[in-house]
């Protein structure tokens, strides 16, 4: 996530033209993408899946996972409560609005992207996000009580994310020649933070002028995302945008900034954005897996050598986050 979160003003899909605060210049809104079969789809039941993950993390910074072991029922329940939350009346959703100015940094909102040519622009979408684990990072006061089952669905899904993340960290550590436990340990072990977000991108009258999320890499170590069936996610590679194909049942894994730093640049945080549709509502459910705020993350000592000196400063995750959100040098 990037930019400055504002209290939410829902984009009005009944409009026939885009309000200026959402419209980007052509230069600023390069959406030309192509379905790209090369974005790796990795079968976790296959014996070489660890090597394929490491290769995808080096080459793309993104891959899709099938046979990941997260039950379809847990995913569909997560999606149900998300869809039902966004179908609530605006006033009900607004009760959970975030308000960073008053220190309420979790909740319902929309994003304003700063510092782009033509001034600040809103992205065409709303979101809800809050931490789900560990217990010390959770504030249930910012979780919606409606719809029924919201809390249970998020907690159950988080349990699956814990297990999956452990495996991903192990495979990605091995791909760097480190012990399997190295990455989990470097990101805080049992204190690693799971932040759940729901993105809601309603139909847009002029989709060619808007973006759902502006280009960014994730602050996280990694992000595991469930999309609905409406395409829109694009990733940048070799100077152009590539559409991420919808693979039913797959989970999309983004390498985030913290893994890029820990790997001393061997793995790449993926630059991505989302487009929006004229007719359909797109939704996505990313889980951002982050180190605790106080933890210092830097290149792993075993990956710093005479030939390959450290490429990133070691710093507390909270300082990294502050600099990134405020567009300050790291
Ligand atoms: O909706 C998506 O596919 C991507 C969402 C995303 O990049 C974000 O929420 O930071």
Automatic annotation (TrEMBL):
Name listed for the protein in its UniProt record: Uncharacterized protein
Reading the lineage from the top rank, the first entry is Eukaryota
The taxonomic lineage of its organism, from the top, reads:
Eukaryota, Viridiplantae, Streptophyta, Embryophyta, Tracheophyta
Species whose genome carries this gene: Avena sativa
């Amino acid at each position: 996530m990037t930019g400055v979160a504002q209290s939410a003003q829902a984009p009005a899909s009944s409009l026939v033209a885009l309000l200026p605060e959402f419209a980007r210049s052509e230069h600023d809104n390069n959406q030309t993408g192509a379905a790209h079969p090369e974005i790796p789809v990795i079968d976790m039941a296959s014996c070489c899946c660890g090597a394929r993950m490491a290769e995808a993390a080096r080459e793309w910074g993104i891959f899709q996972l099938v046979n990941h072991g997260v039950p379809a029922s847990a995913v569909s329940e997560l999606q149900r409560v998300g869809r039902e939350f966004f179908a609530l009346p605006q006033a009900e959703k607004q009760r959970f609005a975030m308000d960073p100015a008053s220190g309420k940094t979790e909740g319902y909102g929309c994003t304003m992207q700063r510092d782009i040519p033509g001034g600040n622009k809103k992205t065409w979408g709303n979101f809800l996000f809050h931490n789900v684990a560990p217990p010390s990072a959770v504030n249930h006061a910012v979780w919606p009580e409606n719809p029924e089952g919201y809390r249970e669905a998020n907690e159950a899904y988080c349990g699956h994310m814990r297990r999956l993340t452990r495996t991903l960290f192990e495979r990605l550590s091995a791909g760097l020649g480190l012990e399997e436990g190295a990455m989990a340990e470097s990101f805080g072990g049992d204190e690693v933070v799971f932040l759940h977000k729901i993105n809601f991108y309603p139909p847009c009258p002029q989709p060619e002028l808007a973006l759902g999320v502006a280009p960014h890499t994730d602050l996280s170590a990694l992000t595991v995302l469930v999309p609905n069936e409406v395409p829109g996610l694009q990733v940048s590679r070799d100077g152009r945008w590539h559409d991420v194909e919808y693979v039913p049942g797959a989970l999309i894994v983004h390498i985030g900034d913290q893994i890029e730093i820990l790997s001393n640049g061997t793995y790449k945080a993926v630059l991505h954005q989302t487009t929006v549709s004229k007719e359909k509502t797109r939704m996505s459910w990313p889980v951002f897996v982050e180190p605790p705020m106080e933890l210092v993350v830097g290149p792993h000592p075993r990956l710093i050598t005479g030939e390959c000196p450290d490429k990133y400063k070691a710093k507390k995750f909270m300082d990294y986050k502050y600099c990134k959100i405020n567009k300050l040098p790291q």
